[in-house]
Amino acid sequence: MFYYDNWPVLITALEMYAASGVSVFNLPIMNIIKEIYDVLKLYEAQINLNIEFGIVIPNIPGYNPSAQTAAISQRMCYNECFYKYREAAEFILFADLDEVIIATTGNLLVEARQYHFQYPEITGFEFLWKNAEYNKVSSPSTFSPNDIFNRLKLDKIQGVGMSIVIPKKLPFSPLHSVRGMQYNGVELKSMNVKEKDGFTLRLRNVRPEPIRTEQYPQEILDFFLTTVSTNFLKRKEDSSFKKALDNLPRESFFALQLKACKTKSYNNQAIACSEYYSLQNCDLDFTNSPKSLAVQADYTKHRYNKLNVYSCSNRQIVYKENCKFELPEPLVFLITNSLLSGPKPFKRPPGTEHLQCEWVYDGQHPEYVKQLADNRTTFVDPEEDHELPTDCASIRNRHNWNKRPLSQEEADFPIAIARTIYGDYFYQEMTLAAIYQPQNHYCLSLDVDVSEVNKKRFHNLASCFPNIVIPPVERKMNSDGYNIDLANLDCLKALTTKNKKWKYVAVLHSYDLILRTNAEIVQIYKWLNGANDISITNGGPHRVSRFVNWTVNNVKLFKKESKYHKHFETNDVQLTFVRADNKNKMSLSREAVDFMLKEMDIERLINMINNRWVVGTDEVVFGTLLSMPQLMIPGHFTQECIIQMRLNMYATNHATFGNPKYCFSNKFVNNVCVFGIEDLVKHVHYVKHISIKKLLPSFDLNAVVCEVENTYQRTHGIVPYQPLNRDYYTSLQHTCKTIEFAPYELNCCLVLKHTFATPLRPGLGMVL
Fold first, then answer.
1. Cα–Cα distance between 716 and 403 in angstroms, integer?
2. How much of the chain is in helix, strand and coil states, percent to nearest 5?
3. Are 254 and 261 in contact (CB under 8 A)?
4. Of 756, 736, 737, nearest to 746 (Cα)?
5. The Cα angle at residue 182 between residues 180 and 184, in degrees rounded to 5
6. pTM given for the model
7. pLDDT at residue 303, rounded to an integer
8. Nearest to 39 by CA among 211, 207, 247, 187
9. DSSP per residue over 208-255, as a string?
10. What mean pLDDT, rounded, does the chain reach?
C-alpha cells in the first residue's frame, strides 16, 4: 500500500471477499496512514487478514526502481505471497485494493472449484473488469458498505480482468492474468468467465455529488449485499472497532493527487508502458499530510556470479510524521574475490580430472561414453591411513562443504539422512559433501565388518561436523537383511536425541546415491504433506514365524506407559504382515518416528522377526506398521492396494532388479543393477526418486563422479535448474488428499484425475 487513503473502498473490498469464501487475506504494506492501519489491525483478528511488511526495491545507484520498474514493488510483493502459499492454497487471486471479483453464486471458492473440475487444463479463470462509479462517503461514523453499493453505476464489461489462478501450475505470480505466461516451455491456458457468472468490480471513480435515492445494481445479488452489510454492522457493535472507524480521515489526502498523476502518466507518450505508472512521475504535495507508518528494512548488496543481488531482512514498521516515502539505500558490503568468483566448483577426486561429464549427458558423444564404459576407472579405499588422511583439515580441503543454508526455505525445513554403512569411506565422504547442509542431520550406522582403518575414518568424519552422528553399536549385517532394521533403529534413536530438529528422515542403504538437491528433497517432502513414503507389497507372512500369535498385545507392541496400551488391551489387533519393496528404503515424518519410539517397543518386535537365515528379514517390520491404519501412526498408508495386487509407487529410492533392458552395464549384484557411465542418461539421471541404487566406485568411479558433480552443480546454480514433476509426487497414493466435490475412491494405480487416495490434512482454499 502506497498512499492509499480511500478507506471506504478498502473496507468494502475486505467485507466482500470475507463473504465470498476467501480463506486468507494477505496485505503487503509499504506506507500507510496510521488510522487506516489501526482499522486493519482489528480486521486482522476477525477475517484471517495477514498484514505483511512489503518489499521495496532499494534505490540502486544509477537505477531508480520507482521510475523504471513496472508496478513499483507490486510484483515482488505478489511473488512473496505466491511462494508462501503456493503449496497450501488451492487457488490464489491477486487483486488491487479497489478491485473485487464477484461470482454470481456468491462464493468464489465454490465457483473456482467448479471451474477447475470442468476445465482441469486451465491455469487462470479471468473475471473481466467492470468500472464503477460510486457515491462519495460523507462520514466514517455513519459509513456502511451500502453507501458504496447504493446508486453504484457499472460500465460495460471490458476485455481484460483479474484472475483466480491455480498456483501449483505457475512458476511465479501474475499481475492480473496468466495470459502469455509459460511454464516449462508450455504456454499456460486462461479462460474468460462469462459475464453472467461473474466479473471484477473496479471501484475506480467516486461521484463527488452523491445521489441519495436508493437503487442497487442487479448484477450484485441482494443476499450478497445483505451479508456484507450485516457483517459490517456487527463489527461496529464492538466499541474498539467503532472508535477506530470514527478516527478515519473524512477527506482523502492523496486520492485526487494520484488520480491526476495517473492521468498525466497515461497521456505522457514518453512512458513506454501505459499500464503502469510510477510515483517518480508524481509531484505529490506532502504539506500537512497525515501521520503514517512505513516499512523499514535492511537491504544488503551481495555478489552472485556476475549479478548484484539485494537481500531484504529485518523488516519492521515504524512511525513517521508524514507520509513521504523514500526509497532505501542498500548496505554495501566488501565483496571478496572468492565471492566475486561465484560458487566454488565441485572438487573431483584424483584420476577423474579428464572427465567430460557434459559430453556424457548431452547425448551427442556416444563414442566417448562407450570409451569410458570400455575402460572404467575404479577406486578402492587405500589400506594405509596416511594415503587417505581424515583429520578435519584434510576432509574439508578435499571438498567444498556448505557452511550455511542455501535458502530460507531449506533453513526452515531441516531433514535427516540415516544410512547403514558397509565400507567405501571415500565414496561416502564425497557423496555426503556434495549434498551436505549444516541445518540437516546425518547418521551412519556401521557394519561390524567395516575395516578398522575405515571405522577410524568414519569416526574422524563425524568428529569434524556437529550434525553427523555414529551410533555406538556396530552390528553384523548381511545382504539378506539381517540386523538392518536394528541398525536403522539405532540411527532413528540417535537422530531424535536432544536439540536435533528435522521434519523428515530418509532411511537408506550404503550405496543409495542421492540424486536430488537438498532444495528438491525439501520440496518433495512438503508435497508428501506428512505422509510416510514406503513401497509395500505381498510377501510378508512367510518371513515371520508361524508359531507366534502375532497380535498387538501378544507381541507387546505398545509400551505399558503408552496411552495406547490400554486401548489395545480391550481392542487387540492382528498384525497383517506385508513386505517393504526395494529393501526397506523409506522416508518417515518426524511425527511418525517420534510416535514409534515413544509409544511402541519397536526393538522388541524387530528382535522377534530378525532372522539371519531368512532372506528379506528387514523388509517386514516398518512396511507392516506403516500400512496398518489401526495402529494410528501419523502419516500411515493402507494395505488395500495389496489386496488389489497393486504395488504403490513411491519417491524415496529407485532400483532395477534383474532386467538387462534397463541396465546397460549388465552388471548385477544380488540381482540389483550396478549402473555404469552408459546408464546415466537413460536409467539414472532423470528418474524422479530422491535416491538410486546403486553406483559403486569399485565398478565405475566416473559414473559416480559425474552424477555427484551434477547434483552439486544444480545445488549451487552452476547448471540450470529443472523444475520437479509435481504431479508425480502429489499423485502417489499415500500423498493424495480428497477434493470436496470429487467422489472419494482409492486408486491403487497412479492416481487418475479427480480420484484420490488416503486423505491427509486439508490445505487452504482461497488466498487473496
1. 13
2. 35, 20, 50
3. no
4. 756
5. 170
6. 0.58
7. 60
8. 247
9. SS---S----TTS-HHHHHHHHHHHHHHHTSHHHHHHHHTS-SS-SSH
10. 83
Cis check for the bond before 694: say yes or no (omega within 30 of 0).
Answer: yes
Measure Cα distances from 355 to 372, 631, 664, 667, 720 in Å.
Answer: 9, 51, 20, 22, 20
CA dist., res. 182 & res. 162, Å (int) = 18
44-48 LR contacts (CB < 8 Å, sep 24+): 46/235, 47/14, 47/18, 48/23, 48/24
Angle, alpha carbons 49-50-54 (nearest 5°): 135
Q: How many CB atoms lie within 10 A of CB 536?
A: 26
Let me know if 268 is exposed, middle or buried by CB neighbors in 10 A (0-12, 13-18, 19+): exposed
> Taking the domains of the chain in order of start, what are their residue ranges?
7-331, 357-715
In this predicted model, what pLDDT tens digit does every residue of 290-334 receive, in sequence order?
777 777 777 676 665 556 676 776 777 777 666 665 656 555 443
Q: Residue 209: phi, psi to the nearest 5? A: -110, 105
Please, what sign has the CA dihedral across residues 105, 107, 110, 112?
Answer: positive
**Lookup result for grid cell 537422530:** 495
Helix boundaries (H) for 363-424: 366-374, 392-398, 408-411
> 246 Cβ partners below 8 Å, 6+ apart?
140, 141
> How confident is the model over 591-645, as pLDDT tens digits?
999 999 999 999 999 999 999 888 888 899 999 999 999 999 999 888 887 776 6
Pairing outcome for strands 441-446 and 307-320? unpaired
Could you give the CA distance from residue 413 to residue 389 in angstroms, rounded to a whole number? 33
Distance (Å, whole) CA 617 – CA 402: 38
350-383 in b/e form (b: 16+ CB < 10 A) is: eebeebebebbbeeeeeeebeebbeebbebebee
Residue 619's Cβ-count burial label (10 Å; 0-12, 13-18, 19+) is buried
In 10 A of CB 604, how many CB atoms?
A: 12
Distance of CA 565 to the CA centre of its chain: 37
626, 592 Cβ separation under 8 angstroms: yes
123 backbone dihedrals φ, ψ, rounded to 5°: -95, -40
Backbone angles phi and psi of 767, in degrees to 5: -120, 135
Q: How many Å apart are CA 7 and CA 2, to the nearest integer?
A: 13
Distance CA 194, CA 192 (A): 6
- Cβ neighbours of residue 239 under 8 Å, at least 6 residues apart? none
